[in-house]
Specification:
Number of strands: 6
Helix content: 25-40%
Order of helices and strands: HEEHEHHEHHEE
Radius of gyration: 16 Å
Strand content: 5-15%
Distance between the termini: 34 Å
Structural class: alpha+beta
Largest sheet: 4 strands, mixed
Length: about 180
Amino acid sequence: MKRTAMAVATAVASMAGLAGTAAPATAVDVPGSTPGVVAPAYSPDVDWITCRINEERTARGLPGLRLSDTASRVGRDHARDMADQGELASVGSDGRDLRTRLNDAGLYSADAEEYLYSGYHHDGYFADMVTDPDPGNDIFPALMNRKFTAIGIGYDRTYWDVNLLGPHRKLVTRAPVCADTE
C-alpha cells in the first residue's frame, strides 16, 4: 500500500471521528427495549458496500468488482489485529505485510493493494467515503482501476482493511448480492 493512501485514510478517518461518526463497536443496550437485551456489535454489509462501489464503476463503463470471501477474511483478521493494537498499520503485530497475509491465505494476485481506515461504523458513511471522487481520496482511483477485479473488506471495532486484487486463475470470487436501492 502506498503510504499516502494510509496517511489520507488516517486523516479522513480521524476527521470522521471528530465529526462524531466513530463509536465503539461493542454490544450495547437497545434503547426502549427490555433491560438486559443487547444489540449486536456493528458488522458491515460487504455485499451492499460492494454494490455501491460497482454502481460507480458501471457508471464509468467498468465491470463490477467481485467479492473474495478469502480476501475479506484476511482483511477482518488484520482489522482485528489493528483494533487489538489500537493503531492503523500495514504490517501486523506478527510482522506480516499484505502480500504475506494474502499468500498465507492462498491468494497470489500480481496486483494487490490495501487501504486502511478507522472511525466508520455505518455502511452508508463508509460507501459514500470510498466512492467520493475527490482528488484527495486515494482509494477512489484504485476502486475505479480496471486492473482490480476483486475486493475483500474486513472490519473490527471501527478498523477497516480493504484489499483490492487483480485477476488470478486460482482467485475464487462471487458476485455481491445487490438488493434494490432505496
